[in-house]
User: Which sequence fits this backbone?
C-alpha cells in the first residue's frame, strides 16, 4: 500500500474531511487506486502492509470499492 492524505475539500463528494487516497495491492496481484476509510488520516495509523478488507460506498448512482482496516480497534 502507498497513500497520500488529501486535505483539500472534495466538494463532489460533499465532504471537507481529509481523504486517504491509496494504491492497494490485492492478494491476486493487481494494484488499484482507491480510498481507505475507517482509520484516522494520520501516518502513524496507516502502517505500510496494513491488512485491509474491501467495502463499497455509493457515489451518485454507482458503488465504488473502498478499503477498511481488517483489524478491529484501529483508532478513528
Assistant:
Amino acid at each position: 500500500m502507498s497513500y497520500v492524505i488529501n486535505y483539500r475539500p472534495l466538494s463532489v463528494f460533499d465532504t471537507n474531511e481529509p481523504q486517504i487516497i491509496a494504491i492497494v495491492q490485492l492478494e491476486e496481484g493487481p494494484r488499484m487506486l482507491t480510498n481507505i476509510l475507517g482509520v484516522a488520516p494520520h501516518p502513524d495509523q496507516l502502517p505500510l502492509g496494513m491488512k485491509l478488507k474491501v467495502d463499497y460506498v455509493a457515489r451518485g448512482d454507482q458503488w465504488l470499492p473502498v478499503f477498511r482496516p481488517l483489524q478491529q480497534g484501529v483508532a478513528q
The radius of gyration is 12 Å. The beta strands are 2-6, 19-25, 31-36, 52-59, 62-69. The chain has no helices and five strands.
